[in-house]
Design brief:
It is a single chain. Strands 3-2-1-4-5-7-6 form a seven-stranded mixed beta sheet, with helices on both faces. By secondary structure, it is an alpha/beta fold. The longest helix has 20 residues, at 124-143. It contains seven helices and seven strands. It has helices at 2-6, 23-32, 45-57, 94-104, 124-143, 146-158, 162-171; strands at 13-17, 37-42, 64-66, 79-85, 105-116, 174-182, 187-194. Helix 5 (124-143) packs antiparallel against helix 6 (146-158).
Length: 195
């Protein structure tokens, strides 16, 4: 859904922020063609190396840069699209990171923020119970790590909800922001257009 909403065309320049293992970068690289660019970035070098290797395994030698989303090492107005998927939630200063993403986008460029969000109210109690009781136990059983899944549930609750994130994106310079709830709001895609 995110890739479709990005409406990437051949020759575009795409920035994948906190792209880690390169899932979206790989999709975008297929669409920009040989005349386009997809820059895979992440602050975590281990994840970034996995993403780089996966791109190379696909036969796509795209630029890979280890950097902090709050201090992007790119010129103003360079990219047509910027995407951050399940990474904004972990950024300390979301406003600074969003302003940086706005800075590096061309006028008319799109920012795609795919992130866990607020579930629809009728499902909220059941979702909270599942997140704090079942998910950590599954994490311990499957991955031997319940703490990471407890952190996941907690970080989702601390992240701005749909309307709050829309407002924050507008404060950071995006003139128009749409929100698409997926899976009853478990995940939301915010699409901001730089004016």
């Amino acid at each position: 859904f995110t890739v479709a909403q990005a409406a990437v065309r051949p020759g575009m320049r795409i920035l994948d922020v906190a792209g880690g293992t390169g899932d979206l970068s790989r999709q975008f690289a297929r669409r920009v063609g040989p005349g386009g660019e997809v820059w895979l970035t992440d602050i975590n070098g281990s994840m970034l190396s996995i993403g780089r290797d996966r791109l190379l395994d696909d036969g796509r030698a795209q630029p890979v840069v280890r950097c902090d989303a709050e201090r992007l090492p790119f010129p103003d107005g360079y990219f047509d699209r910027c995407v951050v998927a399940f990474g904004l939630r972990n950024m300390t200063h979301k406003d600074v990171a969003l302003a940086e993403m706005n800075r590096v986008l061309k006028p008319g460029g799109k920012l795609m923020v795919l992130e866990f969000s607020r579930v629809a109210k009728p499902l909220q109690k059941a979702y909270d119970w599942y997140s704090f009781n079942v998910l950590p136990r599954l994490g311990k059983l499957v991955a031997g790590d319940d703490a990471s899944y407890r952190y996941l549930a907690e970080s989702i609750r601390m992240h701005p909800g749909q309307e709050e994130l829309r407002g924050l994106m507008k404060q950071c310079g995006f003139g128009h922001v749409d929100c698409h709830n997926l899976s009853a709001g478990v995940v939301a895609l915010h699409v901001g257009i730089k004016c």
